[in-house]
Specification:
136 residues; alpha+beta; Rieske Iron-sulfur Protein; six-stranded antiparallel sheet; four-stranded antiparallel sheet; 21% helix; elongated; binds FE2/S2 (inorganic) cluster
């Protein structure tokens, strides 16, 4: 509390002006950031009905078809620094950049990546009899 003032000073005038100015700025940036996030999401990936059992690469997706026919898909971006995953070796997904490897269920087997692959939503595609993998 400053001497002679009954109430403590909570914010300086400059801080208060910054706080007031940031509200419209955040309001204006919100839709722009949402648009950028949507643009960075991978496009839907068609998965053909004859996708083989095991792991395979289908465009921007890593697809795993189990022996029971269950299909799962993951984004084909490495969770370390974002390199495109396009190699399947000995039943694992291997990053060409720094050698991280991932299991068929997206788990990290060897680093430097520490986060699992991003799963994609797989929905049936009535037009082809296959599936379509969607982000989010
Ligand atoms: Fe994949 Fe570094 S980007 S291991």
């Amino acid at each position: 509390m400053r001497p002679g003032h009954p109430h403590p000073k909570v914010f300086s005038r400059r801080t208060l002006l910054w706080m007031l100015a940031s509200v419209p700025l955040a309001w204006a940036l919100g839709p722009m950031l949402r648009r950028v996030r949507v643009q960075n999401q991978p496009a839907p990936v068609p998965i053909p009905p004859d996708v083989p059992t095991g792991l395979s690469v289908a465009g921007e997706a890593i697809v795993h078809r189990g022996p029971d026919g269950t299909v799962r898909a993951f984004a084909s971006r490495c969770t370390h620094l974002g390199c495109r995953l396009d190699r399947i070796k000995d039943g694992t997904i291997v990053c060409p950049c720094h050698g991280s490897s991932f299991a068929a269920d997206g788990r990290v087997l060897t680093g430097p990546a520490v986060r699992p692959l991003a799963p994609l939503r797989v929905l049936p595609d009535a037009a082809t009899g296959g599936w379509i993998a969607h982000a989010g």
